[in-house]
Specification:
It contains five helices and 13 strands. By secondary structure, the protein is α+β, with helices and mostly antiparallel strands.
Length: 199
């Protein structure tokens, strides 16, 4: 077995990316079990067959990179994995027996699409309690208010600023609950200070 403790941490980005690919190929060809310690989540996600997330020496979650990303076990794991960081919004569950289930986010409401998924149905027991809603940026699109598609959940937010990343532009929103960041993909580029909607 190999044990690698942050082997790429002191290298520049170009060399780090090159050696990351080399390490991946080498360990695959040799078929050797490798324990790779890193604080760089992109290294962990790209090199690992299984990823273990620790916080203060306490194991938070173990799983495939896809499982850790898609089904985080807690808020720490959700916030740690992913670039840009997941949008975490505090909300209050409203689950009347005879109406649509919603989550209030400050002055806005997320109406959950029907029919409710099993996960959404399980939220009914949280009636009146605070929950944290996690929105991955790739699951959100920016559009004009009237362009909602059937089944989409709509939030309105104020564009605070834009962050040019080369391959994408990150749009920083204030939803009234907590700031959020999403990539600008298909809509005309919003301007800071303008109100727009996310779906």
């Amino acid at each position: 077995a190999f044990l690698m403790d942050e082997p790429l941490s002191n290298l520049d980005a170009k060399l780090r990316n090159h050696l990351r690919a080399e390490i991946s190929q080498l360990t695959r060809e040799l078929g050797v079990t490798t324990v790779y310690v890193t604080h760089d989540q992109s290294e962990a996600m790209s090199l690992g067959d299984r990823v273990a997330v620790l916080r203060g020496g306490v194991l938070q979650q173990v799983g495939t990179p896809r499982a850790v990303y898609s089904l985080p076990s807690n808020v720490f794991v959700a916030a740690f994995i992913g670039t840009p960081r997941i949008n975490l919004l505090r909300g209050l569950v409203r689950a009347p027996l005879d109406g649509a289930m919603t989550i209030s986010l400050g002055k806005q409401f997320l109406r959950l699409p029907e029919p409710l998924s099993l996960d959404h149905q399980l939220l009914r027991v949280q009636q009146g309690r605070e929950v944290i809603v996690g929105l991955r940026s790739e699951a959100v699109r920016i559009a004009k208010p009237a362009a909602a598609r059937p089944g989409e959940v709509v939030l309105t937010g104020l564009v605070e600023h834009l962050e040019f990343q080369g391959h994408e532009v990150l749009v920083h929103f204030n939803t009234g609950s907590r700031p959020a960041v999403v990539p600008e993909l298909e809509a005309p580029r919003p301007r800071p200070g303008r109100t727009t909607r996310r779906r």
